[in-house]
DNA sequence: AGATGTACTGTACATTTGTCCAGCTTTCGT
DNA sequence: ACGAAAGCTGGACAAATGTACAGTACATCT
């Protein structure tokens, strides 16, 4: 047997633990992740988390990879469908996307955000985070480009940047009803002002 | 003596501990704050932190208040000076402001950001965070308004929102040279596209 | 059926953390 | 000079946490 990895097999147990990790992160933040808390949330024995993952850091790292894969896949799917028929529908599509991610029980948007911040903090996870940022923004830019630009001198990159910025700003200081109460109006005003 | 507060007097020791807390937060995040780590950073005996602050939560809470007061005062000062002479100088002024906050040894921008996120997470600190957001955005909007709008149909609020969003987006995934390498170009492109 | 190896888990243990308190030092009134 | 009160600190302690390991259950093969 190679010495590199202990060779833990993939199993549904393992997947369940990873998803429990995301739920814990969403509820109590990244620092709320402990082996015992995750095990309790996943409904597995306490030692199971240390069995399937070499360390707590490895657990968080895999959770980040999982979130990256899922969220980029989701955005890509939205970008590849029928393009939005104009700026107004673009906002609708974006809000739909955000709502989907917020409601996702397995990788809620709050957990994504926490993990992204954590990735920015840890040297080791930086490359992952930057890859995510690149892919995510590319997909988002494609979605924006598909909608057509409200003004020709505007590039899709700029608009996508502005929209992502609005979303991040809302996520940074989370409020109840941040989507319909704050995010959507802000995006509407932005697009209106540019039309 | 009233029973409400233990009545710890203000002292330079106390202030030093608070500032050490901000430095720890900037370097290791809010969850890196421990009594011992803060005491070491401040160069005071281990028990000093528990002496001057009732609990770790109280320490973080006061650090947040300190950051709020300082950063709003700083932005206000910038907004009240000579208004920027047009959109291009507006970007310069904003970048100056960010650079000042990043370089601030007593309340680095990273610490501000961490604290704001923490405030959003803890029910108890929410009001503080919302007050901060309101005051901060008002000052920023005033600064933007003073510069004059690149297009009349644009409101200062929208532009300020967009700029703050760009900043938050860059802070979320910190990189080396994020100011001149990413933030300034993004702001320039935004203003250009609107001109 | 028995042996054997893999998958898994209960538990112990060292470390770190927040908190408390008994006592030391300094200050200040007399 | 002396005593008392306030300011301060070393050290102790319980709780929580990451990790390692010895043992158990279970499957697979002969």
Question: Could you please describe the fold and organization of this structure?
Answer:
The structure is a homodimer of 195-residue chains. Chain A has 195 residues and is mainly α. Chain A contains 9 helices and no strands. Chain A has helices spanning 12-28, 35-42, 48-52, 56-80, 87-103, 109-121, 126-147, 156-172, 178-194. The first copy, chain A, is elongated and about 60 Å long. The termini of chain A are far apart. Chain A binds chain B through residues 29-31, 113, 116-117, 119-121, 129-130, 133, 151, 153-155, 157-158, 161-162, 164-169, 172-175, 186, 189-190, 193-194, and chain B through 29-31, 113, 116-117, 119-121, 129-130, 133, 151, 153-155, 157-158, 161-162, 164-169, 172-175, 186, 189-190, 193-194.
* Backbone structural class of chain A: mainly alpha
Mean pLDDT of chain A: 86
Portion of residues in beta strands of chain A equals: under 5%
Give the low-pLDDT segments of chain A.
1-8
Q: Indicate the multimeric state.
A: homodimer
**What is the straight-line distance between the termini of chain A?**
63 Å
Radius of gyration of chain A: 19 Å
The secondary-structure element order of chain A is HHHHHHHHH
Number of helices of chain A: 9
Structure summary, number of beta strands of chain A: 0
Helix content of chain A: over 70%
Basic shape of chain A: elongated
Report the major sheet of chain A.
none
Greatest interface by residues involved:
A-B, 35 and 35 residues
